[in-house]
Amino acid sequence: MSDTVEETGEPPLGTLPLDAWHRAQGARMVPFAGYEMPIQYEGIVAEHEWTRNSASLFDVSHMGQLALKGEGAAHELEKLLPGAISNLKPGKMRYSMLLTEAGGIIDDLMVTNTGPHIALVVNGACKWDDIAHLREHLPDDITLTHFDDFALLALQGPKAGEVLEELIPGTGALTFMTAALFEHEGGHIWVSRAGYTGEDGFEIAVHESQVEALADALVADERVRPAGLGARDSLRLEAGLPLYGHDLTINTDPVSADLAFALSKKRRKEGGYFGHQAVAARLADLEAGTLAQRRIGLTVEGRMPAREGAEVYAGDTKVGTVTSGGFSPTLGMPIAMAYVDAAHTAEGTALEIEVRKKRLSAKVTSMPFVPHRYYRGS
């Protein structure tokens, strides 16, 4: 047993297939989701703005890449997710969540029908628990594969489409939430037109033996620069996208989290998945105006950001808690997401956030804070 394990009780951090590549590019590495991950290269704001205007390469290989195969795999997965999976056509993707029987969110994830199998991309910090949950609740004749020898790169930004099309012809024909298999340099890569920045872009699953060559080829293009976790977080916050472990936890439900769009109309009515009764009760609360809290967006006056854990007030009454917050480079002001008592969630509602024993004026704002620019076709 290593000294690290003995002293902390935690296993040593994992390394990404591109660990040496990141360090050679000048990355500052930090612990995240059990791995050493690049948080920035030239700077978070510079990487954020480059992504908004050109294309950035993010390494998200800490995510879990899983596959389900076997007769009725989609139908069996539907018993664990609130979304419609069995009607997902080959090459199509869908956002969904693993839920507990009490409606709590175990993880949020992306589901893709690849044709031969159902693919899942799950959060890095949750992947081992997700795998255990799936193995426990799926029938034995459904094969679950963890592609732990595959890396995952995200090319994000308005120039991502033209960059990738020049390198891998055919990828430009993909539209948001579609995916396909491509040949590249004698191997196969799986490309999805999706991401976590609010910008157009792709996620590229590639074998670890090929990932460095692909990363080199991408950053050789003057339109592409590497970017780290810092810019990824500020971009996803501007896009109003929740982060598991912060805005989503096992103690939050899809309705309170403002993710009801992921609950298909048919499944809301018919149920048949873990947590249906609890989720149906929250939907009824929403319709009746009796939902306890909702995830909302807040813009904050001044320059001081409100971080996770900051308390939200209406007058002298605490009405909520910030779950994500920071300074928006695009808007030039602090923004935040919070769970707030439903009576105070109407757009334009004036609230206050306590930061360093000071009250900051804030206003409920619709999300995304910065409009999404996904490519849905010409």
In short:
With 378 residues, the chain is an alpha+beta fold.
Mean pLDDT: 95
Largest sheet: 6 strands, mixed
Estimate percent helicity. 10-25%
Measured distance between first and last alpha carbons? 56 Å
Total E-strand runs: 20
* The CATH H-level homologous superfamily of the domain at 3-62 and 149-238: Probable tRNA modification gtpase trme, domain 1
Structural class category = alpha+beta
Radius of gyration (Å): 21 Å
Strand content: 25-35%
Unreliable segments of 5+ consecutive residues: 1-8
CATH names the topology of the domain at 3-62 and 149-238 as Gyrase A, domain 2
As laid out across the biggest beta sheet, the strand order is 11-12-13-10-4-14
Number of helices: 10
Look at the structure and give the CATH class of the domain at 3-62 and 149-238. Alpha Beta
Based on CA inertia axes, which overall geometry fits?
globular
Descriptors for this entry?
378 residues, alpha+beta, Gyrase A, domain 2, Elongation Factor Tu (Ef-tu), domain 3, 6-stranded mixed sheet, 6-stranded antiparallel β-barrel, 33% strand
